[in-house]
Specification:
mainly alpha; 4 helices; binds iron/sulfur cluster
Length: 110
């Protein structure tokens, strides 16, 4: 199953450098999940965060219902364009995604 952008999840972060290339299976992003917009750090400039945001801080691009207000605009970060929902990040549900991403963040930031 392949995916198209459906939510705030198609964004990259420091995670991308650790993403195993063997993962070719993609999953559908769950709109409203936003785990990857909150749990992990982002190195690209964001509104209010010119040097990116730290892990655990919701991206200021999130709406109150955890969708991306920047998608489709010039401000949409390149790292987010590159990110693809995948089982290694998204897990089985939103709680699983937060757990997996927290582990990935720890692994990539030491
Ligand atoms: S800009 Fe922020 S809210 Fe939008 S996809 Fe990227 S991390 Fe998520
Ligand atoms: S963790 Fe996965 S399901 Fe959740 S918002 Fe990000 S890409 Fe979508």
């Amino acid at each position: 199953m392949t995916t198209a952008y459906t939510g705030p999840g198609e964004r990259a972060s420091g995670l991308s450098r650790a993403a195993p290339s063997a993962y070719s299976v993609t999953v559908e992003c769950r709109p409203g999940c936003a785990a990857c917009c909150i749990v992990i750090s982002i190195s690209s400039p964001l509104p209010g965060y010119p040097e990116g945001k730290p892990a655990g801080i919701p991206c200021p691009g999130l709406t109150s219902d955890n969708l991306c207000r920047l998608w489709g605009t010039d401000a949409y970060p390149g790292v987010c364009r590159e990110f693809r929902a995948g089982p290694e990040y998204c897990g089985a549900d939103n709680a699983d995604a937060r757990r997996l991403l927290a582990a990935q963040e720890r692994a990539t930031t030491g």
